[in-house]
Design a protein that fits this description.
Elements (H helix, E strand, L loop, with lengths): L1 H15 L5 H31 L3 H9 L5 H28 L3
């Protein structure tokens, strides 16, 4: 089963990316996905910056110093996930660019 998967992926990579080896094609696909994820996280963070008219650090302090209702608390967790995602995807992109 695993051998069939590897064989199919390698064959597809050779057809879709004839000018590069399958490993590099795979790295380029991963890079593209990481870039899309980065954009998604950046859009989410900007949406919250616009909504609350402040950056995450200030918003975090406001949340920690108060007893927020459900929406701001949920936004805090979603925004924190976006900030973490931005950092993770930026690091992933840096690593993948070294391979491409």
């Amino acid at each position: 089963m695993k051998a069939d998967l590897i064989s199919t992926v390698e064959s597809s990579a050779r057809r879709l990316f004839p000018a590069i080896n399958p490993e590099k094609a795979f790295a380029e696909l991963l890079l593209e996905r990481a870039q899309k994820n980065l954009i998604k996280y950046q859009v989410t963070a900007r949406r919250f910056e616009t909504k609350y008219q402040q950056d995450f650090s200030n918003f975090r302090n406001d949340i920690l110093e108060s007893d927020p209702n459900f929406e701001p608390e949920q936004d805090y967790f979603d925004w924190e996930m976006a900030i973490t995602g931005i950092a993770d995807m930026t690091s992933e992109i840096d690593n993948l660019r070294k391979l491409c």
